[in-house]
Amino acid sequence: MSLYPKNLTSIITEVYNKAVENNDVIQFKSTSKYLKTSNSKEASMKYHLTFCDIDAQKPVKPEREDTVKTKFDPFIRDEPEFAIINSLMNDEYKLVLNKFPIVDEHLLLVTKKAIPQASLLTPNDLNASYQLLKALQGEDQDDDDDDEDEEEENAKPKSRHVIFYNCGENSGYSIDHKHLQCMKIPNKLKTFQDFVVQENPEPYIPNVKREALENEAVAFANFTIPLPKKIVDEEYLVMCYVNLLQRALSYFQQWEEADESKRLAPSYSFMMTTDWMSIVPRSSECADIEFEGNTYTMFTNALGYLHMLLFKGGQKELYDKLLEKKDSTPIEDFLLKCAFPNNFSAPPAESDY
User: Fold this and answer.
1) How open is the CA angle 214-116-286, to the nearest 5 degrees?
2) What molecular function does GO assign, one term (predicted)?
3) At what angle do helices 123-136 and 8-21 cross, to 10 degrees?
């Protein structure tokens, strides 16, 4: 039985439109354009670049002098104006709107308890996430009827959604309360995961004989597993996740580093669609981009490894110049700096750092 109602997309749109109308959700104005890769190995790939002057548009509340500043957890309380579903899986989760979305109807799957964002994903996390993707794409997990709708050929293409989880201090999360995010993938955007699964579409559970797929065209370490089109249960998802996690964590085995302060905290970007599950181990949430004599510091979470990058106020010049010069090299260098070098085709034991 699905966790989500069949009219979930309608509920989301209704709640979102009402929240925007009441100024509960702040819609940021932004500009997005595609940039084709200039890397010959990635000839078919492109990036979706967005410029948004968030600081100039975000409302600022006046500070009171008599208040004591404490770390605020916006997820710990229930806010009906953002709630899509206020209780899931015996009140373990809630599905809510992102209050400050760059993309319309950006969703957050949040644990009711304050669990650290460095926590591993649980079977329930994976199950709730996968079923959410299925529900958003109108695919009921419990419906095995293969009869096709007569009007299917004339129907509009289904929107693609992705679930992502920024895990660990170098993954790019902003709130240390366990939450997975869900949003639409821009039209016409194919990620490196799409390409590698397109070439190897047969689903499988990794084992000692067959490891996760790696896309050798990108410079950073990456691991992806194709998922079946039919029903995927909790156990299947867990086995795929554990294999990907083992590959990612091998990059943090730094026993030779005596100074603990210099050891990297395990961090990774987890991403999943109904077609694949993927992990990219992360070394940093930010890095400098040097371009035409100027240095810009950029941040990214999992979206960067879905070919979606956000440029903020002070980065408008970089955004414009990259598009003008049609040069994606700084983007590719940046993504590598925030991850680890691709050690394509090396056996798991040889991938340790």
Assistant:
1) 55
2) ATP binding
3) 90
**How many residues belong to the chain?**
353
172 DSSP assignment: T
pLDDT in tens, 99-113: 999 999 999 999 999
Give, as one character, the DSSP assignment of residue 69.
P
Query: Can you read off the two tokens belonging to residue 285?
Result: 């949430």
Whether residue 340 contacts residue 251, with contact meaning beta carbons closer than 8 Å, is answered with yes
Shortest CA distance to 271 belongs to which of 250, 251, 252, 248? Answer: 248
Residues known to be catalytic:
179
The owner of tokens 């691991």 is 223
Query: Dihedral angle at the C-alpha atoms of 95, 96, 101, 104, nearest 10 degrees?
Result: 70
What are the structural domain ranges in the chain?
A: 8-57+73-140+159-351
Contacts of residue 191, Cβ cutoff 8 Å, sequence gap at least 6: 185, 305, 306, 307
pTM of the model: 0.89
Query: 8-57+73-140+159-351 has which fold?
Result: HIT family, subunit A (3.30.428)
Structure tokens at 166: 């920024």
Question: Using one digit for the tens of pLDDT, what is the confidence trace for 163-185?
Answer: 999 999 999 999 999 999 999 99
Strand order in the sheet with 308-311: 31-36, 46-51, 308-311
The tens digit of pLDDT for each residue in 46-87 reads 999 999 998 888 776 555 454 444 567 889 988 999 999 999
Buried b (16+ CB within 10 A) or exposed e, 128-165: bbbbbbbbbeebebeeeeeeeeeeeeeeeeeebbbbbb
Please, are residues 315 and 304 in contact by the beta-carbon 8 Å criterion?
A: no
